[in-house]
Amino acid sequence: MTNYNFTHRVQDVPNSGIGFMMRYASKYDDVVSLGQGTPLFPTPSFIYDELYKKSKSDPTIGQYSSAKIEKELKNLIVKNIEKKYNFTPDLSEIYLTVGGIGGLFAALMAFVEKDDEVIYFDPSYPLHLSQIYLTQGKPVFVSLIEKKGWQIDLEKLEKSITPKTKVIILTNPNNPTGTVLSEQEVKKIAEIVLKHNLILILDEAYEFLTYEKKLFSPLKLPELRNNIVLCKSFSKEFAMTGWRIGYVYSHKEIVSKISNVHTYFAISPATTSMIAVITALSDPRGDKAMQEFKEKFTESRKAICERLDKLPKLFSYHKPDGAYYIFAKYLNFKMDSFEFAKKLIDEAKVITIPGSTGGPSGEGHIRMSFAADTKLIHQAFDRIDRFAQKYGQK
Ligand SMILES: Cc1ncc(COP(=O)(O)O)c(C=O)c1O
User: Fold this and answer.
1) How far is CA 129 from CA 125, 153, 170, 219, 294, in A?
2) C-alpha separations of 365 from 58, 146, 148, 154, 247 in Å
3) Structural domains in the chain?
4) 270 in helix, strand or coil?
5) What band does 346 get if pLDDT is binned at 50, 70 and 90?
6) pLDDT tens for residues 27-84?
7) Which atom of ligand 1 lies closest to the CA of 232?
8) For range 200-227, the mean pLDDT
9) Which has the least CB within 10 A, 37, 88, 233, 322?
């Protein structure tokens, strides 16, 4: 073996179980995926059509982005923020990023140094964890309370803050548990953030997707805004996971530091993706498409819950209030979640994600994405039913 001298940063970073499972399943042709959290619908066709038209009239769209295009998109984001969060940010407070993930990484790089502590709600999105390790910060796991529908343990949160705590990273609605915070919980978190002068990195990739419960964003609290880095994604709401574009909203001083990181690893998101999002945000068909996706996710949520309800010996779960995941506890199988997820791939030909990738409290669970039409959900569950039958769990 060649003796490379890698940094600790890259040696210590855990691999995301999501990629592992997708690769593990690739040896089979006939697998049904409830794995990766990508809407299995195509990007709305008018977005491609408009982009193609634009390519005919503007030969620069294959080049690095221009200030003009960035400004046009940022102006639309300002309007979108006004609509969603009821305030008007300045253009200097918006920064365009390579997906939500680009903003999250740049924000962590801007605030976290070696051994700084980052509060990580457990379980949540595994890529946050990997990013914390890349900054050489230390994740402090604050477990969500499963028996209360994966609520945040506010007492534990308060007790977990130390002089080394720099950041709380919050995903609302949460991936994988679908937890949506109440206004009261958000206010309590805000109190803690302000009391200890922390930064709240707020991942609202699924902000558009709540069901019966309404989202109360921490951004609704003006006194908190100087301490927030909002990381938003266009991936989910417009079925654009492959276009790799999102944005950050934060105080302009924070934005300038985020720019110092993001510019030097990515320069900017792709110009073509900026144009695609300009179309999605400015054309009424964008909003319509998003509403249609939402209706589909709502139907799929109903379908997956009905199928799970028929398998009480195999799984227990809480109905998610937001996002498009079920975080199910598997019963009567004494193995870790990687082994169980691999077993489901090998024997049922269904891809799910091991719960432990989201943090230690996720052990004993699997994440199932229902970002697909109901036909795929039924196809997956017909297979899972047969699996349950084989083990006498039906
Ligand atoms: C909570 C959360 N944040 C961020 C991302 C990444 O989003 P993007 O595709 O915009 O980078 C995902 C993707 O699944 C996610 O679930």
Assistant:
1) 7, 19, 12, 23, 28
2) 50, 11, 16, 23, 32
3) 8-43+286-387 (3.90.1150.10), 57-283 (3.40.640.10)
4) coil
5) very high
6) 999 999 999 888 889 999 999 999 999 999 998 999 999 999 999 999 999 999 999 9
7) 10
8) 98
9) 88
